[in-house]
Amino acid sequence: MPEQTYTLLIAGIALLMMVPVFLIGKKSGDYLERIRRLEENRVFEKKIADVDSGRNELLREIEDLRRLNEKYLFFVLRIPEAVKNLNSNLTFDETVSSIIRFSKDIIDTDCIELYLFNEESGRLAIEAAFGSNRKNKITVPYGEGVIGKAAEQRVIISRANMPSLPKKTGDMIFYGAPVMFRNTLIGVLGFGKIKNATGNEKRFIAMIADLAGVSLQNCERLSTAQHQANTDALTGLYNKKYFAERSLLEAERAIIDNSPISLFMFDIDHFKKYNDNNGHAEGDYLLSELGLLLKENTRGRDIIARYGGEEFIVMLPNTDKKGAYLYAEKIRELIASTAFRHREKQPLGLISISGGIATFPSDSDTIEATVKLADIALYKSKEAGRNRVMCYEPASLG
Q1: Is residue 185 within 8 Å of 179, Cβ to Cβ?
Q2: Residues 163 and 184 in one domain
Q3: 94 labelled catalytic
């Protein structure tokens, strides 16, 4: 074989041997390319999934913020009404009801309880509740449970953060918020499990508790001011002004119910002599002791007032003249038998009273006129020798 032909043959064989290698290499490259593209697709799809997940998370956050914003807006819109209630002449019961209602509007829960702290007993007594199965007059010891711990630590207590707290049967309270005014504990607001929580409920609870503290303090101040305006500082009995205002209301009620009102007016016999002999301080002490005796021996619905100086008056609704006389005689005998200081120096050797009784509307068609008739009967008692009670009778006393 010529050398040239041999060379060409070898070259051809080599070329034929390279063709499968080339084909195999080409297929391998295509396969790797496909794998690369699939991997890129998976990465891309993961990125899309991550974007979708992030978007959904963002949407949830936006929804939570929207709900929270609505709550804040609702709270802010309710503040003017709450402040208005703070400045209104609400009774204690009205104030408590307003606090529970406001709490219910702001906090989404099925249970709200308001406890007031009694410093003397060291316990918190339930005053009002919404959605609670608590019985009336229930009390919680200071430092016990969610309510007691909130009072003791002066911070909002969550049952979830204090798992060691024992849960009693019927206890629905999950949060306790101290109701304070200028570092003084007034009580505790209790809240049940919160529905649709946003994580900011403690802020709302804290703000509600602050408003409740101001509201209850204002109510207490108003009540104290009204009490002082209506009562006699020395005896603690009602004063003449309050008696006059209350008598008009009682007269209207008596007319509607067709029931009588009797008035018992009396004063202390020889009181000037008592003051002259023992001093005005002792006279004041006698008046205060007599006021206490009256309150302890008179029905709660009756109105007792210091009418002026040593003169007193008792209004007895739904009481006829006979019933009023029995009451008045009981009071006169109690006073005469009580060992008041310096009684032996008095002309009768005891502290005595002279009184008169008149009845509305049988004796007169107005309370004011009935008071005057009782006063007439009082002076007839003095003229008859003192230490006695007489009823107004037109034939003998008119």
Answers
A1: yes
A2: yes
A3: no
In sequence order, which residues have a C-beta less than 8 Å from that of residue 176 and are 6 or more positions away?
145, 146, 147, 149, 150, 151, 156, 157, 188, 189, 190, 191
331 in any annotated domain: yes
**Residue 278 sits in the same domain as residue 176:** no
Distances (CA, A) of 151 to 114, 115, 129, 146, 156: 12, 10, 18, 9, 9
Residue 52: inside a domain: no
Which of 360, 251, 240, 242 shows the shortest CA–CA distance to 311?
240
Instruction: Give 59-75 pLDDT, tens digit per residue.
Output: 777 776 677 677 666 66
Residue 380: C-alpha distances to residues 74, 110, 225, 330, 385 (Å): 69, 66, 39, 19, 9
Cut 0.85: pTM above it: no
pLDDT in tens, 176-199: 999 998 888 999 999 999 887 767
Among candidate residues 57, 310, 329, 344, the one labeled active-site is: 310
Is 97 among the domain residues?
Answer: yes
Q: What is the pLDDT of residue 22?
A: 46
- Number of structural domains (the chain) is 2
Give the residue among 236, 355, 368, 211 at the shortest CA–CA distance from 291: 236
Q: Domain range holding 359?
A: 240-397
Q: Which residues pair with 140 in a beta bridge?
A: 124
Q: Is 357 found in the same domain as 256? A: yes
